[in-house]
UniProtKB/TrEMBL annotation:
<keyword id="KW-1133">Transmembrane helix</keyword>
<feature type="transmembrane region" description="Helical">
    <location>
        <begin position="20"/>
        <end position="40"/>
    </location>
</feature>
<keyword id="KW-0472">Membrane</keyword>
<feature type="transmembrane region" description="Helical">
    <location>
        <begin position="213"/>
        <end position="236"/>
    </location>
</feature>
<protein>
    <submittedName>
        <fullName>BASS family bile acid:Na+ symporter</fullName>
    </submittedName>
</protein>
<feature type="transmembrane region" description="Helical">
    <location>
        <begin position="189"/>
        <end position="207"/>
    </location>
</feature>
<dbReference type="InterPro" id="IPR004710">
    <property type="entry name" value="Bilac:Na_transpt"/>
</dbReference>
<dbReference type="Pfam" id="PF01758">
    <property type="entry name" value="SBF"/>
</dbReference>
<feature type="transmembrane region" description="Helical">
    <location>
        <begin position="150"/>
        <end position="168"/>
    </location>
</feature>
<dbReference type="InterPro" id="IPR038770">
    <property type="entry name" value="Na+/solute_symporter_sf"/>
</dbReference>
<feature type="transmembrane region" description="Helical">
    <location>
        <begin position="78"/>
        <end position="101"/>
    </location>
</feature>
<dbReference type="GO" id="GO:0016020">
    <property type="term" value="C:membrane"/>
</dbReference>
<feature type="transmembrane region" description="Helical">
    <location>
        <begin position="108"/>
        <end position="130"/>
    </location>
</feature>
<feature type="transmembrane region" description="Helical">
    <location>
        <begin position="52"/>
        <end position="72"/>
    </location>
</feature>
<keyword id="KW-0812">Transmembrane</keyword>
<feature type="transmembrane region" description="Helical">
    <location>
        <begin position="272"/>
        <end position="293"/>
    </location>
</feature>
<feature type="transmembrane region" description="Helical">
    <location>
        <begin position="248"/>
        <end position="266"/>
    </location>
</feature>
Length: 310
């Protein structure tokens, strides 16, 4: 019994290390690598394209959470899994949207700018949506202790601070930042893959038991938001490139942040399952959308963007 108890404690310590140290550190590095590719001009570009920004905000911060909530009800998903999907919907756009936008011949400058702005706005919106979701789907089943203020501070530390440090390095030491960015991008990609794999391994039983239930909703949410983002932008009379970009920005989520919020902030591994599933499946829909959309854009973009992990 003593040996078994010791093994259980070691296993718990390993899980705590992954959830409390490895996941936040990996996400912070990913966001730092994003900051290395950003300048003040990326934010200034948004000012020159306010309509595209407003349409993107409508799709990403309003229609996406509403679509997730509607599909949760439609598919009959409850409890921790429902909260997990709402956490995912509340996260900012994944930074690999830059690559998908490039492949789709969309507006890469808009993608970079919107990714940066969405990451900043999420510091304020994500805690509110997550707190509401906990009350809505789990308020009657357990005590809910996720005040928006402390959660906002945690999100700021793992999103805002690393991005700001990356941008600061880009401004103070531009040559060093430009040399470091390609390496940081590759490391970030590996970290993203490792994070998803760890989430899958840690929650293998939950994942296999619920994949058939959760995967269909993940696919429907992804495809519907790709179509919704494109359609709303098109109806707003944005260019075809901008419409393609906002379709991608509305559907490609920062699954890494969803895993960190579920595992580290809320300490509920079941809530991480929707993020792990969506984090893999969203690339299938995104690539399909990109290769279909590029057929309707005649002139290829001039240069590849800086590409970061989600």
């Amino acid at each position: 019994m003593v040996a078994r108890g010791g093994a259980d404690r070691i296993g718990a310590m390993q899980i705590d290390f992954v959830s409390l140290v490895l996941l936040p550190a990996a996400l912070a590095f990913i966001m730092f690598s994003l900051g290395l590719g950003l300048t003040g001009g990326d934010f200034a570009r948004i000012v020159r394209q306010p309509r595209a920004l407003l349409v993107g905000m409508l799709c990403h911060f309003v229609l996406l959470p509403l679509a997730a909530y509607a599909l949760i009800r439609l598919f009959g998903i409850t409890g921790a899994f429902a909260v997990g999907f709402m956490i995912l919907a509340a996260c900012p756009t994944g930074t690999t949207s830059n690559l998908l936008t490039f492949l789709a011949r969309g507006d890469v400058a808009l993608a970079l700018s919107f990714t940066a702005v969405a990451s900043v706005l999420t510091i304020f919106t994500l805690p509110l949506i997550v707190s509401w979701s906990l009350q809505q789907f789990m308020g009657g089943g357990r005590a809910v202790s996720a005040p928006a203020g402390p959660m906002m501070a945690q999100v700021f530390l793992i999103l805002g601070v690393p991005v700001a440090l990356g941008m600061l390095m880009r401004r103070l030491k531009p040559q060093s930042a430009l040399r470091l960015e390609p390496v940081a991008t590759k490391v970030s990609t590996v970290l993203f893959i490792v994070i998803v794999l760890l989430a899958v391994i840690k929650n293998w039983v939950l994942l296999t038991a619920n994949f058939a239930t959760l995967a269909p909703m993940a696919v429907v949410l992804n495809l519907s938001m790709l179509a919704c983002g494109f359609a709303v932008a098109w109806l707003a009379r944005l260019s075809r490139r901008q419409s393609i970009t906002l379709g991608i920005e509305s559907a490609v989520q920062n699954a890494t942040l969803a895993l960190v919020i579920a595992s580290t902030v809320l300490q509920d591994e079941a809530m991480a399952i929707p993020g792990a599933i969506y984090g893999v499946l969203m690339y299938a829909g995104g690539l399909l959308f990109a290769f279909v959309a590029r057929r309707f854009v005649d002139t290829p973009v001039a240069a590849a963007p800086s590409v970061h992990a989600a």
